[in-house]
């Protein structure tokens, strides 16, 4: 299994390609990049939705449960081309402020181009690492993120950083990928699956424990759904018995939207 530095590079290179080609492969891409797993949800009905900024890379709609109010300062972790940022901007209005953080320069450039067209003066995109956020302490009212934290090798550090930058009484709402039960080893070891949100995911109970250990309270799963994996990809990675057990057993990969307060 690649180390944390190598894994970050895999993810960065993959999303740089997506930004450069403007072609979404979905959050859960297959190992070949040719057979996407459609984990994303339809944003088109939301105010602020910007079709050019929607690369289909999410696995939920965190703004749906984030309780974002007019005038809030909102932070989007792994902001990509800016889709969730622009939805949040519609909610905070002129009096609020939205910060997007992404570690891929190509995504930051793409998001900035979209923002220039939209003309928002209270939106900013910053190049940065979720494990070391370029945001001051107690700055943010609400944190959102969409299918990104599962890609972070040091999730404990990521949740600690989220706690640091939130104001007392602030909260987060993130959509993410977790597992239930034990995944077959070949799924865990696939570096490309890591970049596609699977091998980087932890078990749901561990995910919730990390959030609680970071200091958050009132932690609640607002939405949950099982993610179907591409049959062709599974046949390539799993043996017959493993494949049948994964397809028909209780173990699996899930999208969850989680809420918590500081």
Structural write-up:
This protein has 262 residues and is an alpha/beta fold. The protein has one domain (4-261): Vaccinia Virus protein VP39 (Rossmann fold). Helix content is 34%, strand content 22%. The protein contains nine helices and seven strands; from the N terminus they run H-E-H-E-H-E-E-H-E-H-H-H-E-H-H-E. The chain has helices spanning 4-21, 83-92, 105-118, 155-165, 185-189, 191-195, 204-213, 231-237, 240-248; strands spanning 73-77, 97-102, 123-127, 140-146, 166-180, 217-226, 252-261. A seven-stranded mixed sheet has the order 3-2-1-4-5-7-6, sandwiched between helices. Strand 2 (97-102), helix 3 and strand 3 form a beta-alpha-beta unit. Helix 1 (4-21) packs parallel to helix 3 (105-118). The chain is globular, with a radius of gyration of 17 Å. The two termini are 34 Å apart.
Topology:
Blueprint: H1 4-21, E1 73-77, H2 83-92, E2 97-102, H3 105-118, E3 123-127, E4 140-146, H4 155-165, E5 166-180, H5 185-189, H6 191-195, H7 204-213, E6 217-226, H8 231-237, H9 240-248, E7 252-261
Parallel strand pairs: 1-2, 1-4, 2-3, 4-5
Antiparallel strand pairs: 5-7, 6-7
Helix percent band: 25-40%
Distance between the termini: 34 Å
β-strand percent reads: 15-25%
Question: CATH superfamily, please?
Answer: Vaccinia Virus protein VP39
CATH architecture: 3-Layer(aba) Sandwich
Q: Helix and strand string, N-terminal first?
A: HEHEHEEHEHHHEHHE
Could you name the CATH topology? Rossmann fold
């Amino acid at each position: 299994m690649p180390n944390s530095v190598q894994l970050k590079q895999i993810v960065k290179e993959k999303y740089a390609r997506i930004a450069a080609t403007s072609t979404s492969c979905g959050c859960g891409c297959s190992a070949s990049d040719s057979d996407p797993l459609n984990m994303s949800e339809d944003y088109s009905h939301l105010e602020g939705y910007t079709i050019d900024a929607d690369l289909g890379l999410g696995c939920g709609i965190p703004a749906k449960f984030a309780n974002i109010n007019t005038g809030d300062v909102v932070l989007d972790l792994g902001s990509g081309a800016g889709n969730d940022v622009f939805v949040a901007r519609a909610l905070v209005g002129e009096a609020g402020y939205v910060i997007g953080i992404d570690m891929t320069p190509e995504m930051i450039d793409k998001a900035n181009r979209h923002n220039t067209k939209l003309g928002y003066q209270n939106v900013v995109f910053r190049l940065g690492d979720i494990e070391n956020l370029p945001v001051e302490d107690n700055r943010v009212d609400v944190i959102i993120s969409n299918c990104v934290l599962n890609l972070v090798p040091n999730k404990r550090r990521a949740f600690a950083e989220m706690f640091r930058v939130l104001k007392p009484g602030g909260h987060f709402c993130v959509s993410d990928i977790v597992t239930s039960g034990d995944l077959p080893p070949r799924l865990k070891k696939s570096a490309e699956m890591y970049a596609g949100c699977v091998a980087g995911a932890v078990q749901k109970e561990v995910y919730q424990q990390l959030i609680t250990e970071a200091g958050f309270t009132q932690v609640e799963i607002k939405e949950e759904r099982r993610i179907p994996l591409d049959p062709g990809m599974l046949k390539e990675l799993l043996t017959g018995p493993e494949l049948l057990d994964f397809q028909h057993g209780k173990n699996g990969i899930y999208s969850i939207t989680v809420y918590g307060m500081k």
